[in-house]
């Protein structure tokens, strides 16, 4: 059995690990870190790249297993909503939005019904005035998959 068989729990564990790591960095930073180019900026920490690479690989492997459309929908609902709970630190918020781009292959594997429901869900979670280009791309993919 693959480690990705239970996709959602593995993905949640990865997110929890990443968010905990950034929170620890926040707690241990010095007040002047990152100011005027001195010290270490949290946004430059390698944990962000590490999370992004691991999530991309995890989603690729998950898609290769051809999961059930309802399981995919559950995973995508989690990925598409977690950034609303983590607006601080900003580096986490930006990355949690950016990684939506890794989900395009999974969107194409959804049934019409799940794609349609997820489209409505995504529109509510990502209001038009707050959408990034990657979110517009995912909305378009969801809309196409729902047809």
Q: What can you see in these coordinates?
A:
This protein is mainly α. It has one domain (7-146). Helices cover 64% and strands 0% of the residues. It has helices at residues 7-28, 47-64, 69-81, 90-98, 104-107, 112-125, 133-146. Helix 1 (7-28) packs antiparallel against helix 2 and helix 3 (69-81) packs parallel to helix 6 (112-125). The longest helix is centred in the N-terminal third of the chain and has 22 residues, at 7-28. The N and C termini lie far apart (34 Å). The mean pLDDT is 87.
Give the secondary structure arrangement, pairings included.
Elements: H1 7-28, H2 47-64, H3 69-81, H4 90-98, H5 104-107, H6 112-125, H7 133-146
Helix pairs in contact: 1-2, 1-3, 3-6, 6-7
- What can be said about the biggest beta sheet? none
How far the N terminus sits from the C terminus, by CA atoms, comes to 34 Å
Q: How many individual domains?
A: 1
Discrete helix count: 7
Supply Rg.
16 Å
Count of beta strands = 0
**Low-confidence runs of at least 5 consecutive residues:** none
Mean pLDDT: 87
Q: Strand-residue fraction? A: under 5%
What is the H/E order?
HHHHHHH
Q: Report helical residue fraction.
A: 55-70%
Shape: globular
Q: In terms of structural class, how would the helical and strand content be classed?
A: mainly alpha
Quick take:
The protein is mainly α. The protein has 7 helices and no strands.
